[in-house]
Amino acid sequence: MLISPAYAQAAGGAGGADMLTSFLPLILIFVVFYFLLIRPQQKKQKEHKAMLAAVRRGDKIVTAGGLIGTVAKVIGDDELSVEIAEGVKVKVARGMVSTVLSKTEPAKGDDKDEDDAKEAEETKKD
Description:
Blueprint: H1 15-53, E1 60-63, E2 68-74, E3 79-85, E4 88-93, E5 97-102, H2 112-125
Antiparallel strand pairs: 1-2, 1-5, 2-3, 3-4
């Protein structure tokens, strides 16, 4: 006879170790996805949110639609008035600002850090 008989294999006693080894590749894939995709995306989103919060009058920006202009006025927490040409102003949602090309120097009295530094110096003198 050319065919050898097949016998049933004995059942494994430890099911926990098999379960761990079967889930180990899935766990490793999730860890790799976290460090290569999820974490950098969260960091980039945090930086973009900080950039949007720091937009002020005089900054040159690019909108999500590709318009390049200068912030003429900060209307509110979520709205800007942007001058895209001489005498042409449009309202833009703050969230639609994709990048800030150039920042302007803060106007005197606008910068909170300068005020805090002055207060700290005054308290040291007293």
